[in-house]
Specification:
This protein is 40% helix and 13% strand. It has ten helices and eight strands.
């Protein structure tokens, strides 16, 4: 989509793309979700690394795509090829054997994904139905030194905030919590998130990812007020990810365009270094 764009700035040394996906050949790695909501792409590691090299990234965090459900094979194969420069976020059963978690930890995994479709409509019982899995995974992650990685629609993020505030492990919220940019930083749920970031336990981390999922404005201009508010609240707990290969949005947006937004949200090079290098190094243990 943006092969001819130039990066607005060179990533600082040891910069980390903290959220992206790889997809292998469909005959080897078919979709495991029969209701997958996007067309399965071919997005091999080599293609991603060509992009990452253009931007200057040196560290990488793979995130398990929802289409593969709990078959982490494609991602783990790519992680093995990458070695110590990468970490991974998997999807696993909450009662997976200790030996399996130890195997994944040795491979570089550092977190477990709890994934609800970003377009899931409000549902009264959904937050309650997640509690058992969240609490069990919290205990498992505490034992092994992992964190929880949440992708939730904005309404569900708000409903889950009281639960998240009590977690005893670090946790990340993808796509800025999935609060729609058109509603601005004054929307009640986003204000509650800001309060948690400022006054909570310090375990909440925000991913600057998936801008196209929350924006309706040309050039994603409506996101800047949200990004600025998050950076003011907790600059030491913001990380950035390309969300490559953008799946059903791939014909509308590209990774370089999204990367260039960070120069607008964080014009200060020292702040960008914090977001791209220092913060992910702390969270993922680089």
């Amino acid at each position: 989509m943006d092969e001819n764009l130039s990066p607005a700035f060179r990533a600082p040394p040891l910069a980390c793309d903290a959220h992206f996906h790889v997809f292998g050949p469909i005959e080897k790695y078919p979709a495991r979700d029969p209701n997958v909501r996007y067309r399965m792409p071919l997005a091999p590691l080599a293609d991603y690394l060509a992009l990452a090299g253009k931007l200057g990234f040196e560290r990488f965090v793979f995130v398990q795509p929802s289409a593969y459900l709990r078959d982490n094979g494609c991602m783990l194969e790519a992680m093995q090829e990458m070695g110590a420069r990468c970490r991974g976020i998997v999807d696993v059963e909450e009662n997976a054997p200790d030996a399996e978690l130890a195997r994944l930890n040795a491979a570089g995994v550092r977190g477990v994904r709890i994934n609800v479709s970003p377009i899931h409509p409000p549902e009264a019982s959904l937050a309650q139905s997640l509690l058992a899995r969240v609490q069990r995974l919290e205990a498992r992650c505490a034992e092994i030194g992992w964190h929880l990685d949440f992708l939730l629609p904005g309404w569900l993020t708000t409903e889950m905030l009281p639960v998240l505030a009590k977690l005893k492990v670090d946790y990340t919220l993808a796509h800025m919590g999935m609060y729609l940019a058109k509603d601005g930083p004054q929307q009640p749920g986003f204000q509650k998130l800001l309060d948690l970031l400022k006054n909570g336990s310090g375990r909440c981390w925000i991913k600057f990812t998936g801008s196209y999922r929350i924006s309706q404005a040309p050039g994603f201009a409506d996101i800047q007020p949200l990004a600025s508010a998050l950076l003011e609240a907790a600059p030491e707990r913001i990380i950035w990810g390309s969300d490559y290969p953008h799946l059903s949005f791939a014909d509308k947006v590209g990774s370089i365009e999204l990367y260039n937004l960070l120069s607008l949200w964080a014009p200060d090079a020292a702040l960008r270094k914090k977001i791209l290098t220092d913060n992910p190094a702390k969270l993922f243990g680089f």
